[in-house]
Design a protein that fits this description.
The complex is a heterodimer. Chain A is mainly alpha-helical. Chain A has 20 helices and two strands. Chain A has one domain. Chain A has a two-stranded antiparallel ribbon with strand order 1-2. In chain A, helix 5 packs antiparallel against helix 6, helix 7 runs parallel beside helix 10 and helix 11 runs parallel beside helix 17. Chain B is an all-alpha fold. Classes of the chains: A mainly alpha, B mainly alpha. The interface between A and B is medium-sized, with 31 and 39 residues.
Chain lengths: 487, 95
């Protein structure tokens, strides 16, 4: 039981303490805190896989009066993913920001607050608690984008802030309307009340659910509400981009998924054509912009827009006969994209460091200068494209199965086209990186690989390998996710 | 039974809509932040009004709105800090 308190409170504590500590001591403290988080997440996972899902009443005050936290398979797998990615991102940031102690000093507290918000979000079991955690995550994420202090980044952060506040405004209004109707915000209690709504309440409920879903679409960056994502994720420093793309965007989608499964799946089936349309548009247009982008990190950022499309495309399938494969597709896609995208942003960060600038055209010869980072980039690409054996492949496989089972044939073509386009934007980068620089003389002036960069490349590699390894553990993961999904 | 809570709730939703539209339409960051605050007030107003539907004052919705106000203050502060930084950078002619 203590693991729950630790996983939520510890990041907030070490985040606040890290602000006051002298620079030397910050990293050891944060590192210990992150390890503790990993340990607690593993403990929770073991607990759930042996004893099943359970709820935890904060301060022993249970649902109608107090706040319940819910621990199930889906929650613990997201928790574990979050702890692992943030641990690796923290090591990466420590190496990346060695020359900028001022930025590093603010990175640690913000990382702590982000983690506190994310961990609480994955465990929340009521609409209002979800709102608060969503805001904690949003504000920490905006501050992380602004961390570099450059004008372009502040602009991107401001844009992100406005988008995220519009989204949470819609979400909160929806929550208020639901509270007005039923007098509770607990998902479990609402699920019982919502089951058989009478006619006037039905329309009211549909509007409310619409507000909540659209609000979360802002935060999950579903096309066409993704406008804030490319500058924010493409401009931030690599460790931050990795955290935002892998975890923050997923957190908003996680809420949609949770509500869909537990609260309003049958009512929201109305939105099926809309979600199919937006999901397909996100896949096709996001991939297209990734193919066209001329900055390496923009390619990776637009790829996130496309990958979020798969998640929303699979969502309505949860209300059809193909629910089991659809749920597996979604959970595998969340986890596989999280690890692969974090690896890709970290690798891209190193490639940008060793080449003359962030443009793809300037990457010439970077494969020979930093082969390990390039290899990590390519491996992460394998998972994003959905080539076997990788987590991305399993996710696509289940998604296609679900689409075929429920008879949505045209969307099969969209998913396949999305894979081809992903191959296009990944191979485009690889192709240029393997071309030798035209003038050898300039090669010598560029920074050659140094020790920290090599370690950073290994960190990216570790995550890329994890994305591939996910291809071999589809079944255990599916079993874990299924724990408590039915209840 | 009085219907005053409905008047408050619809006013709140009207304020929400106005703030939402203004936050999207206006160009200046400061205007956007003010618009978001108007939007927030609209949400809080309808939240309280709908919560106290039965004519009694409902402490739960008030507690939630209080939390919401704290979040809104923090978000506005962050927005203003970013705007201020943007202004200083523009004045210095810094990159």
């Amino acid at each position: 039981m203590n693991s729950i308190a630790i996983i939520i409170l510890a990041p907030m504590l070490w985040g606040a303490i890290a602000l006051a500590l002298p620079p030397r001591l910050k990293f050891p403290l944060v590192f210990a805190g992150l390890l503790l988080g990993c340990f607690s997440a593993i403990q929770l996972m073991l607990l759930v896989s042996t004893e099943g899902a359970f709820t935890y009443a904060v301060g022993s005050w249970s649902a109608p009066l107090g706040i319940d936290l819910k621990v199930d398979g889906l929650a613990v797998s997201m928790l574990l993913l979050t702890q692992i990615i943030s641990l690796i991102a923290a090591l990466y940031a420590q190496l990346y920001l060695k020359q900028q102690p001022r930025q590093l000093a603010y990175f640690w507290p913000l990382l702590g607050f982000l983690l506190c918000g994310l961990n609480a979000l994955f465990l929340s079991a009521d609409l209002f608690n979800l709102y608060v955690t969503l805001e904690v995550v949003g504000l920490a994420a905006v501050s992380l984008v602004a961390l570099t202090g450059k004008r372009a980044n502040i602009n991107a952060a401001l844009r992100y802030l406005i988008a995220t506040l519009l989204g949470s405004g819609l979400y909160l209004l929806g929550t208020g309307l639901i509270y007005g109707l039923y007098g509770t915000v607990s998902i479990e209690l609402l699920a019982e009340l919502i089951e058989n709504p009478d006619q006037p309440a039905l329309l009211y409920l549909k509007i409310t659910i619409g507000l909540i879903i659209v609000g979360l679409m802002f935060k999950a960056a579903l096309w066409p509400l993704h406008y804030w994502l490319p500058p924010a994720h493409g401009g931030a420093m690599p460790a931050v981009s990795a955290l935002l793309s892998a975890l923050v965007v997923k957190a908003a989608f996680y809420i949609v998924l949770r509500l869909w499964l537990e609260l309003f799946g049958s009512l929201a089936a109305l939105a099926t054509p809309l979600l199919f349309g937006l999901g397909a548009a996100a896949i096709l247009l996001g991939s297209w912009r990734a193919i066209q982008a001329d900055e390496l990190k923009r390619v990776v950022a637009y790829s996130t827009v496309a990958q979020v499309g798969y998640l929303f495309l699979a969502l309505p399938l949860l209300s059809t006969v193909a629910q089991p494969p659809a749920l597996q597709a979604i959970s595998m896609q969340m986890i596989a994209h999280g690890t692969a995208k974090a690896a890709m942003f970290m690798a891209a960060g190193i490639l940008v460091l060793v080449s003359a600038g962030g443009k793809i055209a300037q990457l010439q010869g970077s494969a020979s200068r930093q082969p390990l980072a390039m290899f990590a980039f390519a491996l992460a690409g394998v998972s994003l494209i959905g080539l076997p054996p990788s987590g991305g492949f399993i996710a696509k496989w289940y998604l296609l199965t679900a689409l075929i089972e429920s008879g949505f044939w045209p969307l099969v073509a969209v998913v396949l086209a999305g894979g081809l386009m992903a191959a296009w934007y990944v191979f485009r980068v690889i192709n240029i990186a393997f071309t030798d620089s035209p003038d050898e003389a300039s090669d010598n002036t560029l920074i050659t690989t140094n020790k920290p960069q090599q370690t950073m490349a290994w960190l990216a590699m570790l995550l890329a390998l994890a994305a591939i390894a996910l291809g071999f553990c589809g079944q255990p993961l599916a079993d874990l996710i299924a724990t408590g999904a039915a209840s | 039974m009085s219907h005053s809570h409905l008047i408050f709730a619809s006013t709140g939703i009207l304020l929400f809509a106005m703030g939402f539209a203004a936050a999207i339409v206006s160009q200046a960051p400061l205007r956007k932040i003010i618009a978001l605050n108007v939007m927030g007030s609209g949400i809080f107003l309808s939240f309280i009004a709908l919560g106290s539907r039965a004519g009694n004052i409902d402490p739960t919705s008030q507690a939630m709105v209080l939390t919401g106000i704290v979040v809104a203050v923090a978000a506005s502060a962050l927005g203003l800090a970013l705007t201020l930084r943007l202004k200083t950078l523009a004045e210095d002619g810094d990159e």
